[in-house]
Amino acid sequence: MRIRHAVIAELAALQDIERAAGEPFRALGMDDIADDEPPALEQLDRYRRAGRAWVAVEDGVEDRGRPRAYLIAEPVDGSLHVEQVSVHPEAARRGVGRTLLACAADHAREEGLAGLTLTTFADVPWNAPYYLRIGFRVLEETELTPGLRRIRTAETEHGLGRWPRVCMHRAIDVRRPADMGSEVGMTRQVGES
Hints:
- By secondary structure, the protein is α+β, with helices and mostly antiparallel strands.
- The chain has helices spanning 11-22, 31-35, 41-49, 96-110, 128-133, 146-157; strands spanning 2-5, 53-57, 67-76, 79-87, 115-121, 137-138, 165-171, 188-189.
- Residues 177-187 have low confidence and may be disordered.
């Protein structure tokens, strides 16, 4: 798979990925999460136009260019906040999410942002425990910025507060070694570091 910026014709496919990625929540008794509607096309297009919507696309001949995962993000209080990262279950456990996050980190670095933030379920194995394994840390309540507090409030109003949630942060080095160069705007193969 390759990572690249999303194009407008793919936005409905991103909604389909979101629906498929929600299905595993049913096994945890979180049917409301599985049934939650994906972001609206207008919202996805806002991220796309801002250059903060990435997709992972298949390399195979039949599926060339078919999105199998996506990430959308926006700057919040000096970090790039990952609003959503979703991987279709058929593409899971192949490093796709990690590679999407690496592209987001590259973008944040180019923008002079100090890290990545996200909010997620504390006890869902592919949520907070996964992010801890890849370098994120849970933010204490006293560390939450005003923007993160607004995001948490909106999530609670949306019904996500029924299950334990956390805010997480991963610092990024804004000084990228010269020999590595930037990968934002370039395609990136899944598995690259």
